[in-house]
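Q: What residues go here?
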């Protein structure tokens, strides 16, 4: 995430999802999704250099934008992971706590759901 929302590259991707939604002429509510019922599942993963507790309050826009993108592509978000206090460089590996959290059984269920189990 980057200053209250996703970075510019992700924002451009989100803008190009526009053909997957439409705004009916007779409704004032808002855009409709072309995929009526989501048939896929998704996990939203965000990362930041600040603590996750602060990011959830101060920077909620990135998770919301990624959830809307998943819904637009026909996926239902089943899990949301937020990694915080990342290393000083882009090549820095995740710390052990973050790796354990990503490997929790509740996140492994995504593979089970995709396989139809």
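A:
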């Amino acid at each position: 995430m980057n200053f209250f929302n996703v970075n510019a590259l992700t924002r451009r991707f989100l803008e190009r999802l526009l053909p997957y939604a439409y705004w009916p002429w007779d409704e004032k509510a808002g855009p409709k999704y072309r995929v009526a019922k989501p048939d896929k599942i998704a996990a939203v993963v965000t990362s930041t250099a600040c603590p996750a507790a602060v990011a959830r309050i101060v920077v909620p826009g990135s998770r919301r934008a990624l959830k809307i993108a998943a819904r637009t592509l026909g996926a239902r978000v089943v899990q949301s992971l937020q990694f915080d206090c990342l290393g000083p460089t882009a090549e820095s590996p995740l710390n052990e706590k973050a790796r354990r959290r990503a490997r929790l059984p509740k996140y492994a269920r995504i593979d089970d759901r995709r396989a139809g189990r």
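A: Context that may help when evaluating the design: The mean pLDDT is 76. Residues 8-114 form one domain.
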